[in-house]
Amino acid sequence: MMGRGWRLPFRLLGIPLSLDPSFALVLPLFAWLIASQLPAYAELLATVGLQVDGDALAQGLTPYLLGLTAALGLFASVVIHELGHALTARAYGVQTKGITLWFLGGVAQLEEMPRQRGAEAVVAIVGPITSATLGALLALLLGNVRMGGGATFVVAYLAITNVFLAMFNLLPALPLDGGRVLRSLLALALPRERATAIAGGVSQVLAIGLGVYGFLSLNLLLMVVAFFVYNAGRAEVQYETMRRTFEGRRVREFMSPDPVTVDEGMPIERFRALRTWKTHKLYPVVDVDERLLGVARITEAELAEEGVPLRTLVREADTVRPDEDMELAVRRLAGSELGRLIVVDRTNRVVGILAKTDVIRAMEGTR
Fold first, then answer.
1. Could you tell me if 187 and 174 are in contact, meaning their C-beta atoms sit under 8 angstroms apart?
2. At 284, which helix (H) or strand (E)?
3. Contacts (Cβ under 8 Å, ≥6 apart) of 204
4. What is the structure's pLDDT at 248?
5. d(C-alpha 174, C-alpha 9), whole Å
6. Residue 247 near residue 366 (C-beta atoms within 8 A)
7. Cβ(268)–Cβ(304) under 8 Å?
8. I want to staple 355 with a disulfide (CB 3.0 to 4.6 A). Which of 23, 66, 121, 340 is the partner?
9. What is the DSSP annotation of 186-209?
10. Whole-structure pTM value
């Protein structure tokens, strides 16, 4: 669901922080939405005893500056929420690859979910607890520190939003925290795959409900969230099937062995001709000693000028060893731009290819 994004030049508690390209769209969008609804927010705050002059704050550029500040504070709150997950996972010995902010908030990318019984529930529940605690601290700040109207609005907005964030994440729908708590608790009595299937079913029912409500209320954002939850819940079920299929297995058991390779000195015309008798989109390119140099795509060869040597089209390959863990290889394959891993031995000679079709074939064989 997310692109590669931009890595920020610093780490938070040793954890990399990235911005998905969608963040460049959603930040100004949220800033504008907050600014445009500032008077309505002021009326809402009045119901809880906080007097903010909405008309005064709606003058000139002030609402947009407040909207931008509140939007930045919202995403900072999301980072703190995800840090709660990351640090709890670290306590179980699991590291976090990074935290990414994107269109629908943020995600802490754990290397894997802790395998101890009930650990997933603990890691998941810390997120809402962190958000609720942050909301309470901001509310406490409002009650004990005198601030101007703009500062009062921003702090109050973040206090309310953090409480809402905690409540929303407690919905029992994967991949939300509540869904992970549900799956983890079910797994105490059921096989994990069965627990995931049940949690996934609950997720899809809730997603449909959210989608219908969003449609009837003309809430586009809610419909987008419902679409995300529905598909993410299905993906969790599929991932669990994949994990069970490949756990403890090796790449050599599932790769396509002895693939066709091409020599770096092959004329470009001969390489193009491969499309007439093979359906492969790319081929491993080897040197005179049969060692892997990279891969070349047929589509790029078709666009190349006549007489161009094949070696000029070679690009870096994603490689894996035949004795590597298949479950980890599938995760790498999912993030591979090429859609396949070239399997090489210790001398860097090509012994196979692991493609997404090999994974699908193996998973279908388990049904």
1. no
2. strand 282-286
3. 230, 233, 234
4. 85
5. 31
6. no
7. yes
8. 340
9. HTTTS-HHHHHHHHHHHHHHHHHH
10. 0.76
Q: 64-108 pLDDT, tens per residue?
A: 899 999 999 999 999 999 999 999 999 999 999 899 988 878 888
Spatial neighbors of 35 by CB under 8 A, at least 6 apart, are 63, 64, 66, 67, 68
The 3-state DSSP class for residue 103 equals coil
Bridge partners of residue 283, in order along the sequence: 296
- Given this model, what pLDDT does residue 236 score? 87
Residue 143, SS3 per DSSP: helix
pLDDT exceeds cutoff 50 at 13: yes
pLDDT at 23 over 60: yes
pLDDT tens digits along 252-304:
999 999 888 999 888 888 888 887 777 788 899 999 888 999 999 888 888 77
Q: From edge to edge, which strands make up the β-sheet containing 96-102? A: 6-12, 15-19, 96-102, 105-110
The residue assigned the tokens 């599929």 is 238
60/217 Cα distance (integer angstroms): 31
Q: Confidence band (pLDDT; 50, 70, 90) for 332? A: confident
Q: Both tokens of residue 32? A: 């504008």
Residue 3 above 60 pLDDT? no
Torsion over CA: 204, 208, 214, 218 (sign): positive
Helix, strand or coil, per DSSP, at residue 170: coil
Tell me which residue of 253, 235, 234 sits closest to 327, measured CA to CA: 253
Return the CATH architecture of domain 251-364.
Roll (3.10)
Instruction: Identify the bridge partners of residue 99 per DSSP, sorted by sequence position.
Output: 17, 108
Domain positions in the chain: 1-170, 175-247, 251-364
Cα distance between residue 14 and residue 303, in whole Å: 44
DSSP structure string for 308-322: --GGGG-BPPPEE-T
Residues 6+ apart with CB under 8 A from 34: 41, 66, 67, 70, 71, 157
Q: Which tokens hold the place of 80? A: 């703190």
Return the C-alpha torsion angle 36, 40, 44, 46, nearest 10. 110
CA–CA dist 362, 225 (Å, integer): 32
The partner residues of 56 in beta bridges, in order of sequence, read none
Q: 37, 53 in Cβ contact below 8 A? A: no
